[in-house]
Design brief:
With 476 residues, this protein is an alpha+beta fold. The chain contains six helices and 23 strands. It has helices at 4-28, 37-40, 144-169, 174-197, 221-224, 399-403; strands at residues 43-49, 52-59, 64-72, 79-87, 95-101, 106-114, 118-125, 130-137, 237-244, 252-260, 279-283, 289-292, 295-298, 301-306, 310-322, 326-340, 353-356, 364-370, 385-391, 408-414, 436-442, 447-457, 460-470. A hairpin with a 7-residue loop joins strand 17 (353-356) and strand 18. Helix 1 (4-28) packs antiparallel against helix 3, helix 1 (4-28) runs parallel beside helix 4 and helix 3 packs antiparallel against helix 4. The protein is elongated. It starts with a helix and ends in a 6-residue tail after the last strand. Residues 5-9 and 18-39 have low confidence and may be disordered.
Length: 476
């Protein structure tokens, strides 16, 4: 007959073995990703800052050091940019730094510091103008299942000590069963929470329906609990375009104002869509094309410098994505006087071609852009290539005038390879694609269309302009 104390100690050791088995099982389970890429991944935003074409990359914004990278493109001048980060909805010290752009295009970096989760604003200044880019600093979101796992295992550890102590000091064996039973219950709760935390659906990213704040970015569950029957969409946006007069041969400063069509207030809830807050596409009187990304200077206010050196009418289109409002294409027109320059079509890069299959209205058409050379094209604006089509154009009308009134403005893409689960998509530092890329687009109406295909090589955006004649399909 063994002494009762030895029996109790053996029972306690058995409980320790069970606890270790549970902990090993949980350790082998996949980790939950409560701060997924939607709220904690890299943010890439194209910016036309004066004469510079830049791409600003905020690397996985979390409290602590913040790495900001600036990609300069061919033709961008060297010089110093001042960068800063400041919180939007609660006071805190602003972090500043500098980025020294070299003579060669490429990537240049600075390190700032952010001290809490929530909405922030990144500023990029060249000394004359300042771009203000909103971004989110992610918080570590702990799901209810993770809380159950942590709480259950913590309670089990405390109860284990209680069970051992009870086994040592109690003269009877039955009091030990009380903490042992509670320990088993705590282990059950912890193990269940650990299993569910790796497979349960994650909450919506903070601010997907409502504007993000420092409070809801760390606790997105109230947003998830919003009734699905409620319509959270927002009204369409009104676009106002103004050009500030410039001397002949000087760039024209174009100002864009976005207002809510219901309230008339500035629209300041744009989401980054295809690596830009706002895609601006302009067609000049003679058919010259611009695809730029104006800087945000204030809520609802954007500015960009364009070489509008030809008098006449310019067609303007702005593509945006509004929180809760989806992607919107806003169209307007701009009349410029007092200029005497030529607005001839931009020429295609040497060796570049754009071919199409037979274009029939209502049927898919494949347009293949060939840029010659080797497979060294880089992703641009999150895609391998961009295709813009405008039409059908009426005969005998200047391109800028007709483009402002034609029914079709389309923006299609050649997609980059799908990254592995949890991986970041390829950025502009990767040059491994092409030299040919195919676009599929269905022209809805017959007629003549202006078409531009764009891709990037050597940090230089190449544009191939052409016209496509689309014949009418066979009536069904």
């Amino acid at each position: 007959m063994q002494p009762p104390l030895i029996v109790r100690l053996r029972g306690a050791c058995l409980v320790v073995g069970v606890l270790c088995a549970f902990l090993l099982g949980v350790a082998s389970a996949p980790n939950a990703r409560a701060d997924g890429a939607a709220s904690g991944g890299d943010l890439t935003v194209a910016q036309s800052l004066g004469a510079r074409e830049l791409t600003v990359v905020v690397r996985r914004a979390e409290p602590g050091p913040l790495r900001v990278e600036v990609v300069s493109h061919a033709g961008s001048a060297a010089g110093r940019l001042t960068v800063g980060a400041a919180p939007v909805d609660r006071g805190s010290e602003t972090s500043t730094g500098t980025v020294e752009l070299g003579d060669l295009p490429g990537l240049y970096a600075a390190t700032l510091r952010v001290d809490h989760a929530g909405p922030w604003e990144l500023t990029i200044s060249d000394g004359e103008r300042t771009a203000r880019i909103p971004f989110l600093v992610a918080a570590r979101v702990v799901t209810p299942w993770e809380r159950a796992a942590y709480g259950g295992f913590f309670a089990a550890g405390v109860l284990l000590l209680v069970a051992l102590g009870t086994a040592l000091i109690s003269k009877r064996g039955w009091p030990t069963l009380i903490p042992v039973g509670a320990l088993i219950a705590a282990l059950t709760v912890g193990a269940t929470g650990a299993v569910l935390s790796s497979s349960a659906p994650q909450p919506r990213p903070a601010g997907s329906l409502l504007d993000p704040t420092s409070r809801n970015i760390g606790n997105p569950y109230p947003e998830r609990d919003l009734p699905l029957t409620t319509n959270y969409s927002r009204p369409p946006v009104n676009l106002s375009v103004r050009a500030h007069s410039a001397e002949t041969g000087e760039p024209t400063e174009v100002q864009l104002s976005l207002t809510d069509s219901a309230t008339g207030r500035p629209v300041d809830d744009l989401l980054v869509n295809d690596d830009a807050l706002l895609h601006l596409m302009v067609v000049g009187p003679s058919g010259r094309f611009w695809h730029r990304h104006p800087i945000r200077t204030a809520p609802g206010e954007y500015r960009v410098s364009l070489g509008l050196n030809e008098s006449g009418d310019y067609a303007v289109a702005a593509e945006i994505a509004r929180r809760g409002g989806g992607v919107q294409l806003l169209r307007s027109a701009l009349h410029v006087t007092g200029q005497s320059g030529s607005g001839a079509l931009d020429s295609a890069p040497s060796g570049a071609t754009l071919t199409t299959t037979e274009a029939v209205a209502g049927e898919p058409t494949t347009l293949t852009a060939g840029y010659g050379g080797s497979a060294d094209l880089q992703p641009w604006l999150g895609m391998l290539g961009h295709l813009i089509a405008v039409g059908p154009l009426p005969d005998g009308v200047p391109a800028g005038t007709s483009a402002a009134t034609v029914p079709i403005w389309a923006h299609a893409h050649a997609m980059a390879p799908t990254p592995a689960v949890g991986a970041q998509p390829p950025d502009e530092t990767v040059a491994a694609y092409g030299p040919n890329m195919a676009f599929t687009f269905t022209f809805p109406q017959p007629g003549r269309y202006l078409v531009w295909a764009q891709a990037e090589r050597g940090y230089s955006v190449m544009t191939i302009p052409t016209t496509v004649d689309v014949r009418a399909g066979v009536p069904q």
